[in-house]
Design a protein that fits this description.
6-stranded parallel sheet; Rossmann fold; 3 domains; oxidoreductase; Alpha-Beta Plaits; binds NADPH dihydro-nicotinamide-adenine-dinucleotide phosphate; 434 residues; alpha/beta; binds L-homoserine
Amino acid sequence: MTAPITPAPLRLGIAGLGTVGIGVVRIIQAHADLLSARAGRPVRITAICARDRKKNRDADLSGYDWVDCATDLARRDDVDVVVELIGGDEGIARQAVELALDNGKDVVTANKALLAIHGQALAERAEAKGRLIRFEAAVAGGIPVIKTMTESLAGNRIRRVMGVMNGTCNYILTRMQSGGLPYAAVFEEARKLGYLEADPTLDVGGIDASHKLAILASIAFGTRIAFDGVEIEGIERVSIDDINRAADMGYRIKLLGVAQMTGRGLEQRMSPCLVPADSPLGQLEGGTNMVVIEGDAVGQIVLRGAGAGAGPTASAVMSDIIEIARGVRLPVFGQPAGSLARTQPARTAVPAAYYLRLTLADKPGALAKVATVLGDAGISIDRMRQYDDEDTGEAPVLIVTHKTTPDAIDHAIETLPSTGVLVGDPVELRIEEV
Ligand SMILES: NC(=O)C1=CN([C@@H]2O[C@H](COP(=O)(O)OP(=O)(O)OC[C@H]3O[C@@H](n4cnc5c(N)ncnc54)[C@H](OP(=O)(O)O)[C@@H]3O)[C@@H](O)[C@H]2O)C=CC1
Ligand SMILES: N[C@@H](CCO)C(=O)O
């Protein structure tokens, strides 16, 4: 009698044993049988790598070979897939990924920065070598948005992709609202909770979310990743006054990414926007992410879930590993890299309503002068509220416009100081239809 043939295991080399890396190790250790059944073959870690070998990682790593340099994983014969969980768009992460592809290994990564900057070159490299790069965890953590777009929605022409893709910013904005706290205080709170990236500008400056948006736009529109084409504004200038006054008008402020293809080119913008408080995006609390995809056949899809953290992010990494173990082989961005179109970046021209917060000198005719500037720019006022000046001699005024163009708003903002009635700079935020 012949013994049953055991399928060859898929052998992993894991580079990076931090939040996500250890999360992956834990899932593989806890669910070995389940993974094997679903993948059709065992999934094994053969070698691991991090910076500090002596660090207590609260996990049993004794069964795996330790290598001192991540590129060594890419050189090993007993590694089929290099799982890059170090981070950063340059340095060792990039070297390990490139070497892995060159040495005939597939790559799984959660590294949105690397993909946003070098995604096209890496995809071409992978395809030239007949290898894969999978990156479900790179966008919106545990939310399965990459597979949804490349597989489930492959029959659609995508009209628009938008969403909240940075949990830290959403935490800060919702916490400012719930606690009535200023930005600086909540920023400090987020730092103490360990929510901020080592370089916090990546979060609050909107860069991390823009990396993710650029990746989604490439898949959605069949275009080469164009991170440079994202118009980026972070949340640093969002004040507690804006949070409160937007709430008065029935809105929430979110760091919102929007990508859509227009006749003029690809619009990609990441900026604080107002959304209706009762909309799914408006109700998104804390570190949760949400991605909204609009396809011509399917209509609107809303995906919501944890955008970060060991479990959710490792869950997404595992989905890629199982996909490779099953033998599913898809082009990196959903179609061959050579067929991805070059695009022109296009500045947003889609009309929207706008929120304007102005502080005026509290004197006769001040409001009339503002109304004249707006009228001359072709901007019609929908709603307006003047707040108590508390004897300061100043009048805080909030205006919600009817839909108008970004050019008209820019023109009005440039012209308003010439009225001589403005105290400080006006604040202008787009109100996004969702
Ligand atoms: N944390 C999250 O929730 C999410 C993270 N990601 C992405 O996942 C990736 C990993 O993130 P995360 O786990 O949070 O990061 P961590 O900072 O927690 O872990 C990074 C790991 O990389 C190791 N490392 C750093 N430099 C080197 C080096 N030169 N050689 C070998 N190893 C090195 C570190 O080693 P040591 O431990 O010894 O210092 C550490 O184990 C990043 O690309 C991140 O953007 C994506 C979605 C969510
Ligand atoms: N800094 C990121 C981590 C997940 O990508 C966030 O806050 O969403």
